[in-house]
Write a structure and sequence with these properties.
single chain; 56% helix; elongated
């Protein structure tokens, strides 16, 4: 494969290094800042780091939905609101008058604790609902061949790909892809799999193997959020 080409050549193996549907670099970077801020007991930096992760996730979700006929922004909007709320809470804890912080800081701290397990659960439940939605819309089974793997142009330093499938339907040879870039569950170029398509718009498909891999990744990320919630509880217990 040409390192500068956005495509995989026939016969090239699927990329092996792990990268998910969301910009994991930004998320993991935010987590690192959050953990350091926790050790420094800086609620301001902790909140900003988490706000950045939620907002980035929301932006990527919205970008993925923009090219679809069947759009659903509910999860993206929820993540955006959570991210903004976290950032506002952090700014409040940093810049609000002391008298106001004494009144509202306990509520903000409890909010921080509640957001993390909620985010972890939403990542898992959101992926499950996305799979169910695809199964509901994509009702026609076809045999498709992966003709290439398109590289994400928005993450030039990440080897994230989405497969382009070629299949025959209603007397026409068609190609289909989505905007979910990943290194999880990708096929090899030339590999054939059963996929389920949206027979009306041909813009969405369901491929079980890739979706299962995406669900596992969502469970891992959700678990990370649950671990972070435990970290927050420990830090608050220590600080008290």
């Amino acid at each position: 494969m040409n390192e500068h080409s956005p495509y995989m050549e026939p016969g090239d193996p699927a990329p092996k290094n792990s990268s998910g549907c969301l910009p994991l670099g930004a998320i993991l970077g935010g987590m690192a800042v959050f953990l350091v801020a926790g050790m420094l007991k800086s609620a301001f930096l902790m909140a900003l780091a988490m706000g950045e992760m939620f907002v980035m996730g929301a932006v990527m979700m919205m970008q993925a939905e923009q090219q679809k006929h069947h759009r659903s922004y509910a999860m993206a909007i929820l993540f955006l609101l959570l991210g903004v709320a976290m950032a506002v809470g952090g700014c409040y804890s940093r810049f609000a008058p002391a008298s106001m912080r004494e009144v509202f800081d306990p509520y903000i701290a409890n909010g921080f604790i509640g957001v993390f397990p909620l985010a972890g659960i939403l990542l898992i439940v959101g992926k499950i609902l996305s799979i169910r939605r695809k199964k509901r819309i994509c009702t026609e089974q076809v045999y498709a061949e992966c003709v290439r793997l398109d590289r994400s142009r928005s993450h030039k330093h990440r080897n994230s790909y989405t497969p382009v499938w070629s299949y025959y339907h209603d007397g026409e040879q068609r190609e289909i892809r989505d905007n979910t870039f990943s290194n999880v569950g990708n096929p090899r170029v030339g590999e054939s799999r059963e996929i389920w398509i949206d027979p009306e718009y041909h813009e969405m498909y369901y491929e079980p193997q890739r979706e299962r891999s995406g669900l596992i990744l969502s469970c891992v990320l959700g678990g990370i959020f649950l671990v972070i919630s435990g970290f927050i509880i420990v830090m608050l217990m220590i600080s008290n």
